[in-house]
Automatic annotation (TrEMBL):
Signal peptide: none annotated. SUPFAM superfamilies: S-adenosyl-L-methionine-dependent methyltransferases. Its EC number is 2.1.1.-. The keyword DNA repair does not apply. Keywords: Methyltransferase, S-adenosyl-L-methionine, Transferase. It comes from the Bacteria. One of its GO terms (biological process) is methylation. Gene3D superfamilies: Vaccinia Virus protein VP39 (3.40.50.150). This is O-methyltransferase. It comes from Microbacterium aquilitoris. The keyword ATP-binding does not apply. PANTHER family: PUTATIVE (AFU_ORTHOLOGUE AFUA_6G01830)-RELATED. GO terms for molecular function: methyltransferase activity.
Length: 226
């Protein structure tokens, strides 16, 4: 039986690499750390994006020159802070959170980070809130990180509320490899349905990247509206 190479992607190795890259490329930040800590303190699920992914969102927003950002799924506002900090003067993040308690915690974290003035937290289910945004100025970046069962719906609204060139990012598209299975449950079914939209809907041009970090084996899809 072959012994694993010391360079095989074991959990210990990829966590070490994640810690190294995070320590090298993501500066320590009190407000972001407090946002992460608030999840455990408030009994919320600790499912925020990893720091490297947070910075990726930040950089994508800056690369896109985004002034208006839409986020579906706020949780404790960790990713929201990253996005808000990427905006120029007068920029705006609209973030949607279904759970009132989560929204309350998010608002406190946004205030602590000094970005509450550029973020609007809208409470309610995405399916109910997204139609209320129709007719407003289009969004330049959309980040989808909510209930996976609704990914296809959220992507449809991303296309409706964006413009040609809008960047769309969908989190958690690998699900520890279960995305290749057709009987892995409703969340995986929702991920696969969303990826099918990105493949088949002519409004999108997309790719996806697998990730290995402190959140485990997962990935993100990145698209633009055409």
């Amino acid at each position: 039986m072959a012994h694993p190479s010391p360079h095989d992607p074991t959990a210990e190795r990829w966590n070490d690499v994640d810690a190294y890259l995070t320590g090298t490329l993501v500066a320590p930040d009190e407000a972001l750390s407090a946002s992460i800590a608030s999840l455990a303190d408030e009994g919320m699920p600790e499912i925020e994006v990893a720091p490297l992914t947070g910075k990726l969102l930040h950089l994508l927003a800056r690369i896109a020159g985004a002034r208006r950002v839409l986020e579906v799924g706020t949780l404790g506002a960790y990713s929201t802070i990253w996005l808000a900090r990427a905006l120029p003067a007068g920029g705006r993040v609209v973030t949607i959170e279904a759970e009132p308690h989560n929204a309350e915690v998010a608002r406190r974290n946004l205030a602590r980070a000094g970005v509450a003035d550029r973020v609007e937290v809208r409470e309610g289910r995405g399916a109910d809130v997204l139609p209320t945004l129709a007719g407003d100025e289009p969004f330049d970046l959309v980040f989808i990180d909510a209930d996976k069962e609704s990914n296809a719906l959220y992507l449809d609204w991303a296309a409706r509320l964006g413009r040609p060139g809008t960047v769309v990012v969908v989190d958690n598209v690998v699900r520890s490899g279960h995305v290749v299975e057709t009987d892995a449950g409703a969340q995986v079914d929702g991920v696969r349905a969303g990826l099918a939209v990105l493949r088949d809907d002519p409004r999108f041009e997309a790719t996806a990247l697998q990730t290995l970090d402190r959140k485990g084996w997962d990935g993100v899809a990145i698209a633009i509206l055409v």
